[in-house]
Known about the structure:
Layout: E1 7-10, H1 14-25, E2 30-33, E3 45-48, H2 50-59, E4 66-67, E5 70-75, E6 81-86, E7 92-95, H3 96-109, E8 114-115, E9 120-124, E10 127-130, E11 135-137, E12 141-143, H4 150-155, H5 157-163, E13 166-178, E14 186-191, E15 194-201, E16 206-214, E17 226-227, H6 229-235, H7 241-247, E18 253-260, E19 268-269, E20 272-274, H8 289-303, H9 307-332, H10 336-352, H11 355-359, H12 362-365
Parallel strand pairs: 1-2, 1-12, 2-8, 5-14, 12-20
Antiparallel strand pairs: 3-7, 4-7, 5-6, 9-10, 10-11, 13-16, 13-18, 14-15, 15-16, 17-18, 19-20
Helix pairs in contact: 1-3, 1-8, 2-8, 8-9
Amino acid sequence: MNSRFDITILGAGIAGLACALACARRGFSVEVVEQAPALGEVGAGLQIAPNGGRVLDALGVAPRAVASEAVHLIDGVSGRSVLRMPLGSGFRLMHRADLIEALGKAVAAAGIPLHLGQQIKMVADGYLVLDGGAQRPFKRLIGADGARGAARRFVAPDHAAGQAARFTGQVAWRAIVPVEDAPSEAQVHMGPGRHMVLYPLRDGRLLNIVAVEERADWTAEGWSQQDDPAHLRAAFAGYAAPIRALLEKVKSVHIWGLMDHGATPVWTRGVVTLIGDAAHPTLPFLAQGANLALEDAWTLAAGLGDAAAWEAARRPRVTRALAAAKGNASNYHLAGARKMAAHGVLRMVNAVRPEVMLGRYKWLYEHDATQGLG
């Protein structure tokens, strides 16, 4: 039995839903298969940069968001400003659930079937194997089911088995707290061996917290692990009073270990192609995971006729973005003389030309994935 759809997409996250829309716009018949029973309130905040936002605009998807005015680097211990980089238009801060909701509504409006509650045991040649043994055929599969998903295990079994994954020596907490009036900017509070990123969500009524600490012992990855908020407060007990007061508001927090998976050595096997985290899990230090997923979604839909050519065009940009994200963490965690010197230079830049630092990423933010495959 053959599928009646041109394309089956595995995974109803950002990459999968966006790719379904992009493929449907090009005339393909598409279905989406997802293991979760519903598209619910999963995850936390996202920073959508102009490169990802161009894809959303092209898809006609406009989730509620806060416009980000700047990226503000702050000394976490003293609370002193180090560098405030003003942003142009197109930088948006949003809750992941709001983006998924907007994409889901667009998928429904396009008449794309979304099959929820499908527990996929494995991907095989031409069909999905569900728990219980039932088979679901496909003509062409796009794997958007993440770094630990069945599609990655099929395309790159050695890589997916975890042999290439490495614990970065860092763990991350995430939490959301209600606030009265959060500033319309992303703040990075830097300190020895740790940093914290804060930015507003939902009209500034919520504040998204991502806190990272260097740690020798390994912590499992995945967002579902609860932690005691007291552990988060203890890790940042040396930070300035406003941060300590903010962390007192945290009632629920999740923790996960940051793993460096790297990009898989290949993104396609037969008629199965990976996108998003399934192809190239991204460390969070450049806030590009969702943006790269959106770029993948659009460009693969345009390049489905030759997946090898799509990968060849796409991989250099993804590799550069992954490397830039990896390098940022150490810059946030400086101590002693190195910290004093680096912060001194940044403050001088801030006084003269604060836009210079952001200019280093013009290659990233000014890119328009809707105009090509790369």
